[in-house]
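re the bet — no i am not wrong, look at it urself. input seq straight from the record:
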Amino acid sequence: MAATPEGTGARGERLWRFDLTQLTREQDYRVKVASVVSPRYRIALAGDPVPVSFEVEYRSPAYARLPVQRGSATRGDLTALRGSIARLTVTFDRDLTALEATLPGGGTARWRALTPRRWQGEVPLERDGSYALHAVADRGEGRFLYRVTPLADAPPLIAVRLPGGDIDLPNGQQVPVEVFAQDDLGLTQLKLQYKKDDSESWSDVPLARFPARPREARVASRWDASGLALLPGQSATFRFELLDDNAISGPGRALSPSFRLRFPSLADLYEKLDDQRGTAQTTFEKVAEKARELQKSLDKLARQTPRTAPPTNQSFERSEEMKSSLQRQQELGQKIDEAAKQLNQSVDEASERRAFDEQLTRKMEELNELVKQVQSKEFREALQRMQEAMEKMDRRQLENELPGWREENQKMIANLERTIELLKKMRQEEKLQGLVQRTDELLKMCSWCNRLHCDQDWLPLEEAINYLGLFGSSHLPRITHGICPTCVLLFEELS
């Protein structure tokens, strides 16, 4: 090694410097000037060996399908998905003669030397804990402890779009379901679970398997609930279970909220239909009131004599009033269509359940025909012509169409009034028929405490009679006897 001149000393002697870098082991050295050689000197490394850098390569478990991740650090703490293998390359400040690792759980492993300073080995990330490195050099040795943190595979996520809540058993007993599933690594299976009684264990119905293990999935299907064999008034509970592909600690699991599937009795159906009819009746009454106000505006427009002279402020105001009236008429039409659609749905549902007798069914058909006449074909055509004239700003056509519009609106008001009256009569008859149906159903009475089973509760006798409305019915219910849950618990305690 050549020396670097450093100038002269105090007595005129020449000074030289030698830089010995990257000293990783003990060494001897001497100085030679011309033919003169100095004695040998020994360079010893002070202290114990110390790691100065770590290169880490994480290999995730095969099921995760993640790429190899690489990084570097000045410490050897490890964090990765549980089941991963960390391959470490450790560089020390000096040469070593041996390096041994004590792994989490107590096992040991000797690491191999890439160079005297660089050593390589593997640490599995299977459990929380730490691993230790025992470094041995020619002089001195060191022990170093590092943290091992395996990351759990996050469970999957599930979101249920259908059903939106508790539901009644649909006609045909085919329950539509739609589920969105997501996982950070992969999905394997979606199941529907059900039980008829809270004391029972869940039964599974496979809905979908995911052999390709996608990270996201949407499942839309229909569950055949006929296997539950529900009777009117009975119900069952169901939910969804989603599994991921965790092959290390077992499949991760996500559960949806539970839903109630109920087979409504005819009495319940009458009550639901009455609510729907009541909503439609209220809508028709509000529309009729606004239609009468609109009729006043149309009558006022008809009484005013339109001007044939060039447009003035007054004619502009008349056009704006007609435009506003047309917009109000269209809004009323939309509300009538919505109410008619709701009525049709209730009629279809009642027909599917065969809920009504022949006389009431005929009245329902009459009501449907009457609702169709509320906005007749002629009425819709008149509004369409008014709309076209308004868009063309054709004042002459607007004035020509105004009388027909007034006449059709009057017919609509009359049909609305007839529809409202028929709805009121039908609702009264449905309530009476519902009371008869409720009394025709078997009532279960506890043989020990005499409470009656009403829907989901056991009520005292007088409270049950009021709840069922039996005082207002001429039909007496049929009684069957059993035992209520409270009395069952009481007898279990006594035994």
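see?? The two ends are 100 Å apart (CA to CA). told u. also Residues 281 and 420 are 6 Å apart (CA to CA). so pay up
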